[in-house]
Automatic annotation (TrEMBL):
Keywords: Coiled coil. Residues 94-121 form a coiled coil. This is XRE family transcriptional regulator. It comes from Spirosoma taeanense. It comes from the Bacteria.
Length: 122
């Protein structure tokens, strides 16, 4: 999954507009974020740092590499993520699992076809 897709998913999960998201990063207009979302720009380090500073609940591993949950699992009750954020995490994990299952099914189908072809050639 590309950084553009992850940023769009993040904006959707935060339930903010692209302009509001950009403003949280200190941008007066949303052009830079729009360009990133449409693949015309790659986010620079300072932009990623601003995202993680503005939204400390975001998991940096997820943002940078697409690994883990979108939001951190915080241990202290005062910093606990909301039920809505947990639900979004679960929805995202289910989406990832569905993608992986589809890929595994496709690989399995290809292997079965290759096995059938090998048996037919005997």
């Amino acid at each position: 999954m590309t950084i553009e897709i992850r940023l769009q998913q993040l904006i959707d999960a935060l339930n903010v507009s692209v302009l509001e998201f950009a403003r949280q990063l200190g941008e007066h207009r949303g052009e830079k974020v729009y360009h990133i979302l449409h693949g015309r720009l790659k986010p620079r380090y300072d932009t990623l740092e601003k995202i993680l500073t503005a939204y400390p609940q975001i998991n940096a591993d997820w943002l940078l590499r697409g690994e883990g949950l979108m939001f951190k699992q915080l241990s202290s009750p005062s910093a606990a993520i909301t039920t809505e954020e947990r639900l979004r995490n679960m929805e995202f994990l289910l989406f990832q699992l569905n993608e992986r299952m589809a890929l595994l099914q496709q690989t399995n189908d290809q292997l079965l076809a290759e096995l059938a072809a090998l048996k037919a050639n005997r």
